[in-house]
């Protein structure tokens, strides 16, 4: 089986577990006054689970491929070294570091550092554009989440 189908199978298994949690366990803990609402906190997870299951089944069954396609697969798992595996693993490491530094370093600094380091990893070298864009994007996201939506995000490090 091709690599894309293995990945689709793993995503399908995760989506089935996520869908089970969304459909059968999340709604049991709702207070009575919320059970009459048309949209519950589990509505988005339910939609996300159904769409993910449908998409992974389409890939797993090969419905997205054309009938006349006899060429080799797009990703050859025997030649993973030919791909930019280092960049992908570096980005995954940056995502983990971002998640771990989000509270102690504050949202603004952690997001700014992640955007800068991630862009640098992917090859961006125009720092006169990169730094202001990362700073403005970090501030806009913080402002929208904190001020507009009213969800508190600690903007600065814990010692300030």
Automatic annotation (TrEMBL):
Keywords in alphabetical order: Membrane, Transmembrane, Transmembrane helix
Domain called DUF1468: residue spans: 7-153
Stretches that traverse the bilayer: 45-63, 84-101, 107-123, 130-153
Coiled coil: none
Pfam family, one: TctB
InterPro entries in UniProt: DUF1468 (IPR009936)
Descriptive protein name: Tripartite tricarboxylate transporter TctB family protein
């Amino acid at each position: 089986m091709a690599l894309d189908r293995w990945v689709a199978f793993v995503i399908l298994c995760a989506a089935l577990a996520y869908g089970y949690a969304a459909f059968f366990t999340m709604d049991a803990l709702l207070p009575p006054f919320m059970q009459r609402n048309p949209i519950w906190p589990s509505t988005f997870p339910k939609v996300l689970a159904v769409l993910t299951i449908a998409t992974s089944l389409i890939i797993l069954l090969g419905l997205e491929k054309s009938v006349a396609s006899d060429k080799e697969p797009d990703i050859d798992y025997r030649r993973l070294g030919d791909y930019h595996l280092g960049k992908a693993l570096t980005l995954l490491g940056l995502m983990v570091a971002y998640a771990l530094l989000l509270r102690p370093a504050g949202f603004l600094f952690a997001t700014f550092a992640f955007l800068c380091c991630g862009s640098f990893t992917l090859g961006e070298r125009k720092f006169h554009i990169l730094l202001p864009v990362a700073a403005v994007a970090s501030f806009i996201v913080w402002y929208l989440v904190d001020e507009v939506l009213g969800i508190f995000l600690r903007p600065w490090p814990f010692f300030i």
